[in-house]
UniProtKB/TrEMBL annotation:
PANTHER family: ABC TRANSPORTER PERMEASE PROTEIN, SUGAR ABC TRANSPORTER INTEGRAL MEMBRANE PROTEIN-RELATED. The lineage of its organism: Bacteria, Pseudomonadati, Pseudomonadota, Betaproteobacteria, Burkholderiales. It is a multi-pass membrane protein. It comes from the Bacteria. It is found in: Cell membrane. Pfam families: BPD_transp_2. Keywords: Cell membrane, Membrane, Transmembrane, Transmembrane helix. This is ABC transporter permease.
């Protein structure tokens, strides 16, 4: 039971940045915009969050400020992407890839002076609950960022499916022409959705550099932005399924260390490939039913919109 509790705990920790980034990308895609720049946005936000935590301290208010810095950085980068893709009608896929590459280079340049520096380990655990047998270690021994991600996911799901503004966003993702005919400012709403999605990705990056591994390492996002993009398709654009997918991939990521600890004789390189192999396998399986994907996918996903008047 202790081993199971430990596996659940590390899975929740590893799945949190995936959950934050995937929910942000889901909001983008529900509005009809595909942002392939998540990897680069997370990297730049990670170095911004780390720099903020290093200046103000890596625990308590310092971590909160780091999350805020990551969110603002992510929102700014995503808004720039949105201006290009939404208002100038550049190709969303090519622009997103450009931002992914930009983020890799920019984060390496900005973070060069932070390499080798560490933050103090942040305080973790829910007082009074973390000492419970098994359950406490599994669910109540985490940093507050884990619970923040869960709360924001629930809030995003409620907003998308239970509010008028969420319905408007989803309507724009289905038929921007109809929404425009009803008087909605389609491009402005899409830009706002992209900025909010970028803020989520930014918080994911800040979590990685200040909580998950409280240090800055070049390229530390390590493909999580791409996995988060795949998660939105895996979850068929449903927040609840994103939660399951994020923690499932978190478990697969951490499984390699548990197998090595148990003495399983498998090459370390193969174990490191597990999360990405799982991602490819899931995408292959859901692609076997393209009609089901089309029924769930926003109809205007990736398609530019230019108002006639």
């Amino acid at each position: 039971m202790d081993t199971l509790a430990a596996l659940i705990a590390v899975s929740l920790n590893a799945g949190t940045p995936l959950l934050l980034a995937a929910i942000g990308l889901l909001i983008n895609e529900r509005a009809g915009v595909v942002n392939l720049g998540a990897e680069g946005i997370m990297l730049v936000a990670a170095v911004a969050g780390f720099a903020c935590a290093l200046h103000f301290g890596g625990s308590g208010a310092g971590t909160a400020l780091a999350f805020g810095a990551g969110a603002l950085t992510g929102a700014a980068m995503a808004a720039l992407f949105g201006l290009l893709a939404i208002y100038l009608n550049t190709n969303q896929y090519a622009t997103g890839l450009a931002f992914a590459l930009l983020g890799v280079g920019l984060s390496a340049f900005v973070g060069e002076g932070f390499v080798g520096q560490n933050l103090a380990a942040p305080a973790k655990g829910v007082p009074g609950l973390e000492d419970l047998p098994v359950v406490g270690k599994a669910f109540f021994s985490h940093h507050w960022g884990v619970y923040l991600a869960m709360a924001m996911t629930a809030l995003a799901a409620w907003w998308l499916f239970r509010t008028r503004s969420g319905l408007t966003l989803r309507a724009i993702g289905e038929s921007p022409e109809s929404a425009h005919a009803l008087g909605y400012k389609v491009r402005a709403i899409r830009l706002a959705a992209v900025a909010v999605g970028g803020a989520f990705c930014g918080m994911a990056g800040a979590y990685l550099s200040t909580v998950y591994t409280p240090m800055w390492v070049e390229g530390m996002v390590a493909g999580r932005g791409w996995i988060a993009l795949a998660l939105t398709a895996f979850a068929t654009w449903r927040p609840g399924r994103v939660v399951v997918g994020a923690y499932l991939f978190g478990a697969v990521t951490m499984l390699q260390f548990h197998l090595q600890g148990l003495g399983v004789q498998v090459p370390a390189q193969f174990l490191s490939m597990l999360p990405y192999l799982a991602c490819i396998l899931v995408l292959v399986l859901i692609s076997r039913n393209p009609q089901w994907i089309r029924l769930n996918m926003p109809a205007s996903l990736g398609k530019p919109f230019t108002p006639n008047a």
